[in-house]
Structures are given as C-alpha cells and as structure tokens.
C-alpha cells in the first residue's frame, strides 16, 4: 500500500454505510432493511453473515436465536430453509412480521441489482471461522469474478483474522478490511499480514492522531457505529473515510 495514497484510492466506496442494512429504521440483516436503505438513497450497506447448518451463508448477527429471531438455540443448528421460515422482523415492529432470515446470495443479488455497494462482515459462529470465510469467499467470488472496477467489488471484513484469511484464500481478488474494537498497537502488521485495504474500528477507539497514522499509511479507515451527526462530522474532519450508521435518516449518503 502506497503511503500518502489519496482518499479515493484508499477508500473508493461510499462514505456512509447503513449498519446491518436497516440500522434503527428497519429490522437488521433483512431484505426489508436493504429496501429501507435503498428507499432512503443510501449507496452502501454493511451486514453480517453466518453459516446455517447446511453451509449456506445467511444474514445474521447473533450466533444464538432469541434477540431478533424468536427461538432458542444456535443459528448454526438450523438449515437455511428453516431460518428462512423464521420471523426476523416481528421484533422490530408489526409491519415487518414474518420477514425471513435471508440467504447471502439473495441479498447480494438484490443489492447488486439496485446498485448498492456492500461491506460483507463475515461473522462466524464459534468454531466456524475457516468454513465461514471459505464459503462466503467462494460465493462472493462467483458473483464477482475478476470484475474490472475495483470500487464495485464488495469488501469483506471480520473480527476473525482466521475467517478473513480463509476468505482471502478463496477469493483473493475481493478486498479485505480488518475489523477491531480497539485499534491494536500492531495494527499495521495485522493489516499487512492479511493484505487488507482498510481498518474498521469502533469510533470511540480513535483520536485524530491515530486516524492520521492509519490513513497516512494508505489504509482506508471505517468507523462504527456513528449515530450522532456532530460526531460523524468530527470523524470526517480527522480524515476518516467512512462511517457505519444506524441513523441514516440523520446521517445520509451525502452527509458532510
Ligand atoms: O462492521 C461494523 C460493525 O457492524 C461491527 O459490529 O457487532 O455491529 O457487527 P457489529
Ligand atoms: Mg456488523
């Protein structure tokens, strides 16, 4: 990565991403959430992907049922068709009752058809880092085979370096971002080890000097989850390339 790369070559992607698709405006990690982001003219979304029992990647944040999908037990114990029959929307509100747990393939196709860029967060269930990275990598590589125009390729991210490594092996041409809560002291070494293009961190883990070191090294810098416009403005003033927000009604695609 060239030091001093300009902002566009560091991060050729949208500046504001809809967190889990729906953020606080529609149920997370569902097609209804993606429709909401599209209706509000967002240009990019972030969402979480986990493997169902049949090895099909589905959109899901928690490894256990209960919070967004009624039920008990591990998500990874249910086949994707069973998950698709569950209700991932009723918790959010009656308008979304019966919204299915969608498969990655379906969501990626829908987003591509509607011109939304995607940050695919690989979120392995415990013990499934390698197979999740591998399968998600293969699926996205099939949908985006060596396409020209790097800005259109999805970006993988993960808290799991192992999953990110498996995605790299399966889909070397799909770019990667390392996801962390706090920024580790050896962030540069970790990014280099996985040949990442970006670092994604909690917005409150950052200060102006650290942001400058990361972007100055040529890496894209994305912060989550930023729901206050004043904070978003401050982060952008530090040179942060992108933020992920639940409140894209307040911090929209063209936020400055
Ligand atoms: O990718 C940014 C953010 O989504 C990471 O945290 O827990 O919301 O997936 P989480
Ligand atoms: Mg996420």
Short description:
The protein is α/β, with parallel strands linked by helices.
Structural class by SSE content: alpha/beta
Level-1 CATH class name: Alpha Beta
Let me know the average pLDDT: 96
Q: What is the first-to-last residue Cα distance?
A: 27 Å
* Global shape: globular
Task: Note the total helix count.
Answer: 9
**Main sheet specs:** 9 strands, mixed
* Pattern of helices and strands: HEHEEHHEHEHEHEHEHE
Rg over alpha carbons: 17 Å
Describe this structure as you would to a colleague.
- The chain has helices spanning 7-10, 31-39, 80-84, 104-113, 129-143, 161-170, 187-193, 208-216, 229-237, and strands spanning 16-18, 44-51, 57-59, 117-122, 155-158, 176-179, 198-202, 220-224, 242-245.
- The protein is an alpha/beta fold and 256 residues long.
- It has one domain: Phosphatidylinositol (PI) phosphodiesterase (TIM Barrel, Alpha-Beta Barrel).
- The chain has a nine-stranded mixed beta sheet with strand order 1-9-8-7-6-5-4-2-3, with helices on one face.
- Helix 9 (229-237) links the parallel strand 8 (220-224) and strand 9.
- Helix 4 (104-113) packs parallel to helix 5 and helix 5 (129-143) packs parallel to helix 6 (161-170).
- The radius of gyration is 17 Å and the shape is globular.
- The two termini are 27 Å apart.
- SN-glycerol-3-phosphate binds at residues 19, 46, 48, 61, 121, 157, 179, 200, 224, 244.
- It holds the Pfam family GDPD.
- One of its GO terms (biological process) is lipid metabolic process.
- Residues 14-255 form the GP-PDE domain.
């Amino acid at each position: 990565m060239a030091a001093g790369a300009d902002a566009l070559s560091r991060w050729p992607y949208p500046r504001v991403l809809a967190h889990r698709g729906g953020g606080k405006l529609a149920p997370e990690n569902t097609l209804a959430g993606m429709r909401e982001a599209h209706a509000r003219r967002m240009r990019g979304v972030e969402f979480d992907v986990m493997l169902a029992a049949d090895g099909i990647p589905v959109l899901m944040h928690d490894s256990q049922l209960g919070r967004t999908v009624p039920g008990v037990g591990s998500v990874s114990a249910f086949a994707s068709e069973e998950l698709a029959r569950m209700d991932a929307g009723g918790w959010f509100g009656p308008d979304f009752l019966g919204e299915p747990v969608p498969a990655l393939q379906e969501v990626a196709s829908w987003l591509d058809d509607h011109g939304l860029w995607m940050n695919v967060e690989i979120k392995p269930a415990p013990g499934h880092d390698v197979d999740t990275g591998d399968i998600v990598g293969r699926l996205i590589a099939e949908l985006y085979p060596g396409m020209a125009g790097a800005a259109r390729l999805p970006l993988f991210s993960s808290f799991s370096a192992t999953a990110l490594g498996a995605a790299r092996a399966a889909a070397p041409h799909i770019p990667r971002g390392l996801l962390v809560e706090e920024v580790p002291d050896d962030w540069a070494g970790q990014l280099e080890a996985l040949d990442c293009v970006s670092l994604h961190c909690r917005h409150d883990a950052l200060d102006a000097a650290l942001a400058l070191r990361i972007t100055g090294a040529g890496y894209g810098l994305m912060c989550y989850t930023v729901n206050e416009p004043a904070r978003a403005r401050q982060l952008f003033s530090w040179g942060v390339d992108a933020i992920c927000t639940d409140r894209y009604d307040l911090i929209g695609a063209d936020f400055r």
